[in-house]
Amino acid sequence: MATQVDVWSSAPQADGVVTLEHQPKASCPYSDDDDGLDEVEVNGNWTPQEKALHEARLKAKAKRRLRRSSSRNSTSDSVSESGETPGGDPHAVKGKVHNNDRKSRTGKGRGLPKKGGAGGKGVWGAPGMVYEAEEPDVRDPNYDEAAQGDTVYETVVPEVEEKELEKMVNPIVLEYFEHGDTKEVEVLLKELNLGQHKYEFTSVAVSLSLEGKASHRELTSRLLSDLSGKMLTQGDMAHAFDKMVKELPDLILDTPEAPQMLGQFIARGIADHVLPMNFLDTYKGKVDCEHARVALDRAAVLLSMKKGMIGLDNVWGVGGGLRPVKHLVKKMNLLLKEYLISGDVSEAEHCLRDLEVPHFHHELVYEAIVMVLESNGDTARHMMMKLLQSFWKTGLITVDQMNRGFQRVYDELHEICLDVPHAHPIMEAFVDLCYQESVITKQLRDACPFRGRKRFAQPAQDHEQLRLRLFPQKGRMGRQRKRVVTGDAPPHSRRDERPAALNRKEKKKKPDIGKLFINISIGLCIFSLIWFFYAIYMRSSLSKRVVTLHPSPRVLDANSTTAEVSSERFWGSYRPQVYFGMKTRSPRSVVTGMMWMRQFSNLDMNLRHTCEQGDHLQGYSWLMHDGLTFGVQEIRDNDFTLTTEFVKRIGGDHGGDWTWRITAKQHSSAPQPPVISLIFYAAADIQGSLHTHMEERHRLASITGFSEELGNFKITFRKPVTGELSSTKYASYNYLQTLSPGLEKLTDIVKLSLNRRFVYSPPSGEKRHYIGVDTYKPPHHQNQQKPADPRKESDFVVHQVTVQTPFQIEVLFESGSFYNRPNQLVGSIMTQELERRKAEFNVKFDKIFGLESKGFSQTYIKFAKAALSNMLGGMGYFYGESVVQSVYNEYPILYPEGALFTAVPSRSFFPRGFLWDEGFHQLLLSKWDPQLTREAIGHWFDLMNIEGWIPREQILGDEARSKVPAEFIVQRNENANPPTLFLALQELIGQLSSRSDEAASKPTLSFLRRLFPRLKTWFQWYNTTQTGPKPNSYRWRGRDKDTNLYLNPKTLTSGLDDYPRASHPSADERHVDLHCWMALSSGIMASIAQLLGEPHEDYKLLHDVLRDNNLLNDLHWSEQLHAFSDYGNHTQNVSLQREKVYVPPGQPRHQFPVARLVRSVRRAPKLQYVNALGYVSLFPFLLQILQPDSPKLEHILRDMRDPNKLWTPFGLRSLSKTDPLYMERNTEHDPPYWRGPVWININYLAVRALYHYGNTEGPYQEKAADVYKELRTNIINNVYTQYVETGYIWEQYNDSTGRGQGSHPFTGWSSLTVLMMAEHY
């Protein structure tokens, strides 16, 4: 490749290769007309390199002179003897070419124009022009024959300088934003020699996208993904993102949202394997910049969203017109449906702007009108008019888009009428309404089609006059129907006359076809009307069934959680979503809690309140918690530790008193004692009132209040001290008293009230400004029509204490009805009470679990106590409405309000109830407190509807809903979850059989008797709605239907999410795990019915059928895999490939979708066994359906123990290493979830089953006992090790390294490790 240069030099390399090195110089380029060199340079003192350069110039000049006089030029290359150029203008001056002639002026060459028309004196063509390699001339005086064999000619592209890189790359990126073709970018970059600065391309692309739209950022993410491994390595990407993280203070000057956006880029990059998986780990403890922390926190939160959460492929939203039209239509439909529920115009406007498709807004108009036509009542009509009016006034929807949307409906109205018979009058009313509100023009209104008449027709009388005037003959003809016979007419012939009797007989024989047709039509119309109204009635009735609660008496009385009935459980740490807080078990409880932040840190604000993985705490865990009277929690922040303790004292009529004690200590690694602000608060929830009492000017001494559940009460804030008996420590105080619209807004209110104007002035230290709560100023949204929050505002009081570590603070709650209180529960009294409760906890723990007798050390026992305490401390009380939908509901509707007392899987990520998790939770809690288990199960069954369906994910109340993305809130009544509550009921039945004391058994028997009617309905719902294609087979409903995007469509309802099932979902599937769940459930139903004296024969018969090993083998045993398997329409020949998008010539690229990774099916599926070896294959063994002498047990034990299949040193992996889908992503941005990692709940079932078969006589008893010992030891050791190293119990564990991964802390079913330690199965 020829390049416009000043000086080129040859540098010999190995193997005789010669490369050209560019030597830039400021002098002018030499030309053929140069006669000499600068004498100053020749006579100067030159270095050896300069001397060699001078000699090369002299040789080149001599060579050019020799060529001028050479006689080797061919006829076509030379000048004629007359001095004329061949083919030149005969009228031109002799020996001179035309000024505009582009041929060589020296007369050399083939008489062709210069390459590309470029050049001039001393110039070798256009910059970047490529010349063919010139063969050496043997007649050249400088020709060296011996050196020719060792000469290699290379094309060398000079490396782009760093200061030029951005100038050259910017146009490439901006052009890519227009066409979206990553391959074109790759080709252009290959033509540039970016060299060691190639990582800068990533920085430039991301920086440009930060200043652009969401679609640009989506395109940039795709570009980086496609270039990764080709043009750029993970190291280059990491280098670029590291640079951007450090430059965030500069980036926010142009893009204030840069930290959040960069965090999303990092999360997307890690998910796409563009960045190393440990990229975030390299920053732990090393980041001082606030903006960098925000970016890294954002990335960590997004990466941790796995269970039931949206994928990272949608992290930038819809992405404008680069997405498929179907996707945009779906998004607009969802936008309109959410608007009809919320009525929030500003939110709808925000969502529409985020779509970035102004050319497609006519689709929103079209969909809005269609929804109005299909809706019942005037509500939707007025709401849609209001929405379109808002979009029209703000200019979001243009005249053209509005007209196109309405015109599309006009054109299709005759088709819409087939589905909506009354579409015409509804359309008329809506068009009139829109015209009255100035949404549409008069011309558009008049264009609306109307059934059988023109719009604004004249009155009937005027219309008739007009018709007579235009058609006078028609007006008279209507009265001239009879034929008049005159006397001149000839008489009728007598022979033509017939007897009257004969005529009457003929009339009787002749049926009147017209009347018959009319009668039939009337009958059909009457029947159709009856059927129509019956269908409407049935649809209305069926649509209400999903929100109709079960008619049987409630399992728990409505007042079962009140202070009068259950005073010991009335107050508790029932707010698992916050680090520390308490509330009562009542629907509208007064809530209390604590926030904190470190003062004088590099971050402007690091407020901690709700449990967030993005806070990057070193750990937070309940060390001891009995679920009733006390709890001790340790929270380890970056350079200090907070210990939160509470103790309850029962008394009075409203649950008694309680006291908090917060102790703060600095870490030994902290350079100086940190100054911390503790923020205590109390908030009413709709009902109740709070009043503040001040002392010493700004210090809030106490709060008094009243509510229906608590009566009168007082909360006292004591001053901080160094120790229990020490004097008061210096502190600064702030307080805030305001109103809150909802509990989910508390954090935002505190953040918006913070101010840096306060001074912290200790007696022996410097004065410094600190952040404190001040006056709350609600955010003002300009140019936004945000509707007022309809909820009633409630009292909210905040008390802030700013003090240097170490210190200790106590907060005391006293009930006004506790008259005979012996003393205040503070100071040494609290210490004594706390120590007594701790001792009782230790005694009870040892009695139940007996870990010391099992040989465990005190560190292992402390870990087990923490695991149990975290599950007890994670119990939550929620109240509110679920959002549900059935096939008979056009839109989601609200479920009846209800309460739920339940454990939660994770305080940070899943602080709500999950149906299939709860069964595992209660296996552990039933050992500790059977009454707690009975209440939790009762609350779940009291949420059942008339069909027997229980919503599988309970998102109750605004505070719980604020933690869940909108697309996951709606629960659908055809979807099930594994009925794990039967495991907990099995445990309760087992406890009955082991107790001879009738009094101890009475509560459980009474509970089962009240539960049984609902339990029967629940079992029947599973047995009818989840049946399979064959008798006694079962199939999970609710599999993902979009098979184009998923490598293997997920089955979220099974609880195993992305575990491989049949590649093509169909009604022919049979799921072995559901078959085993039904076999287990039917057996437990038979036991409960027999225990209560109810008919049990049908349950026993079904149990015997389902646990028949021959039936199980026929339905699910795969001879090819030698394992139990699902059955369905399946092929293993599937993969994810980049789709091809055809763009017709001349069409704009941005109007076509971006190429995505989609599923490619290389071989057609067929009905066969799904040969995926993993957790599902083990279910006949896990739930102990197999007989101890079954030959299939040998295969299962062998596969479990095989390291190449399921065995790991950390537990059983979820999918065999030999499976094609092992650790494979399910979509472009959906990492493997149940395709390899170790999950503790299934491993618990495996250990439990091994214990059963190892203690049951059979040919495989010894083998099962050996595997049991090994597996139990591996699981316990790994979970304990990770807890010690990381401070957390984890959702899942890596099958290769054993490291914890997923959400944390996950003290749900992972706490079953305690039962394995105690060998309680």
UniProtKB/TrEMBL annotation:
Residues 71-82 have a biased composition (Low complexity). PROSITE patterns: MI (PS51366). Residues 114-125 have a biased composition (Gly residues). The keyword Mitochondrion does not apply. Residues 1-127, 476-506 are annotated as: Disordered. SUPFAM superfamilies: ARM repeat, Six-hairpin glycosidases. This is Mannosyl-oligosaccharide glucosidase. Residues 164-285, 327-450 form the MI domain. Residues 31-41 have a biased composition (Acidic residues). Its EC number is 3.2.1.106. It is an enzyme of class 3 (hydrolase). Keywords: Endoplasmic reticulum, Glycoprotein, Glycosidase, Hydrolase, Membrane, Signal-anchor, Transmembrane, Transmembrane helix. Residues 1-12 have a biased composition (Polar residues). Residues 59-70 have a biased composition (Basic residues). It is a single-pass type II membrane protein. It catalyses: N(4)-(alpha-D-Glc-(1->2)-alpha-D-Glc-(1->3)-alpha-D-Glc-(1->3)-alpha-D-Man-(1->2)-alpha-D-Man-(1->2)-alpha-D-Man-(1->3)-[alpha-D-Man-(1->2)-alpha-D-Man-(1->3)-[alpha-D-Man-(1->2)-alpha-D-Man-(1->6)]-alpha-D-Man-(1->6)]-beta-D-Man-(1->4)-beta-D-GlcNAc-(1->4)-beta-D-GlcNAc)-L-asparaginyl-[protein] + H2O = N(4)-(alpha-D-Glc-(1->3)-alpha-D-Glc-(1->3)-alpha-D-Man-(1->2)-alpha-D-Man-(1->2)-alpha-D-Man-(1->3)-[alpha-D-Man-(1->2)-alpha-D-Man-(1->3)-[alpha-D-Man-(1->2)-alpha-D-Man-(1->6)]-alpha-D-Man-(1->6)]-beta-D-Man-(1->4)-beta-D-GlcNAc-(1->4)-beta-D-GlcNAc)-L-asparaginyl-[protein] + beta-D-glucose. Belongs to the glycosyl hydrolase 63 family. It comes from Ameca splendens. The chain crosses the membrane at residues 516-537. It is found in: Endoplasmic reticulum membrane.
